Amino acid sequence: MAITGLPEPAWRKPIAFIDLVAQQERIRSRIDAALHTVLDDGNFIMGRQVGELEQLLAAFTGAGNCVTCGNGTDALQLVMMAEGIGPGDGVIIPSFTFVATAEAVMERGASPVFADVDASTFNISVASLKRCVQQAKTDGLKPRAIIAVDLFGLPADYPAIREIAAEEGLVVIADAAQSFGASLNGDAVGTLADYTTTSFYPAKPFGCYGDGGAVFTASEAASELLQSLRFHGRSPDSNDHFRVGLNSRLDTLQAAILIEKLKIFPDEIDRRNTIAQLYGSRLGKLVTVPEAVDGARSVWAQYTLRLPDGVDRARLRVALHNEGVPTAIYYPRPLHQVSIYGKSPRDPEGLATAEQLAESVLSLPMHAYLDSETQDYICAKFSQLLR
Ligand SMILES: *Cc1c(COP(=O)(O)O)cnc(C)c1O
To answer: Collapsing DSSP states into helix, strand and coil, what is residue 86?
Structure first.
């Protein structure tokens, strides 16, 4: 993640923002063998590894059903289709998220309604969510669903979200693209909402070597519908088509890779938590680091901190880059300020926290293979350059 136009950093050993090479080295021979099996079988679409992975992931989460698909954005869109969400419907989403969350809603002709987030968790604010449900009604929309996003790997406050959803008759969707493997009060991501979507994009905590995604649901009926929708709306036992669907399947090759990656995933989650703890203890006095949330276990898709007022973030990033420390800004703009979503309904009291976060957040290198020596270096340089 080089900042373009800058000279090469003086510090030579490159630090990866997300290191996919170290992980590959760890399991390369098993990946090679798994890929060869798929090549020998020749069933590249919906080969047996796809079903096998779905069973493994359903068991891993306890969700009951897992339906894989082409990517995390399609996963959200498939849920919108399964619930028949479309024009005239309002779907409440946090403004501080990746663009795909809103895109899946708009693509169906429904309207995103932007809620603010909590500064300490980066996740949807329950008070704002309530105001957004009312705002949707005021705007003549039918509130249909909430897409809570587990930002940076931390589950949203599902017990509170579900309470509001029950009162208002809304479907709860968890956009868990960044949080697969996390849990809340002992319940795994995948079981916390009516539908949970995730992404296997390479840089996500549970990534493959290409695009991929999945939907988790406890409902057998919803699972069957999703299986039809991802495969051109075809009926399960004939060549008939009952509905319009998508072409959105997980490649057999990617499923075979994920089966191997799942074996080391619990260990990788442990490592990420150790690394996050170390960042917290080293940097917690200088900047606002993510707080531990009671009962929640994050998978740390990103380690995102908030800089104090008055720090020139752009300059700090350049200085860190020059010392070989890559950083990123997730997200530089809340979605209610992105051109295409700029006119969408939103919390009538404003989205001050999302706007403040976009100005002050900074993400540091985070992956399961960040060794303590490198992390010491990052923390030392960060502390020195912040002053
Ligand atoms: C990555 C991501 C997505 C989209 O996943 P893709 O597989 O890239 O389509 C959706 N929502 C969030 C919060 C994400 O981080």
So the answer is: coil
Could you tell me the two tokens for 277?
Answer: 């703890």
Task: Decide: 302 in ligand 1 pocket, CB within 6 A.
Answer: no
| Tens-place pLDDT, residues 138-182 | 999 999 999 999 999 999 999 999 999 999 999 999 999 999 999
What contacts 147, CB < 8 A, 6 or more positions away? 76, 91, 92, 93, 101, 104, 105, 173, 174, 175
CA of 72 from ligand 1 middle (Å) equals 5
**147 CB near ligand 1 (under 6 Å):** no
State how beta strands 142-149 and 171-175 pair. Answer: parallel
Token digits for 160?
A: 């509170």
Closest atom, ligand 1, to C-alpha of 73: 9
Residue bearing the CA closest to ligand 1, atom 10: 100
Q: Which residues contact 28 (CB under 8 A, 6 or more apart)?
A: none
**Ligand 1 close to Cβ of residue 128 (< 6 A):** no
Q: Is the CB of 71 under 6 A from ligand 1?
A: yes
Which residue type occupies 276? A
Q: How much is the pTM?
A: 0.96
pLDDT digits (tens, 9 = 90+) for 88-105: 999 999 999 999 999 999
Which H, E and C letters describe 6-42, residue by residue? CCCCCCCCCCCCCCHHHHHHHHHHHHHHHHHHHHHHC
Query: Helices 99-107 and 72-82 sit at what angle, rounded to 10 degrees?
Result: 40
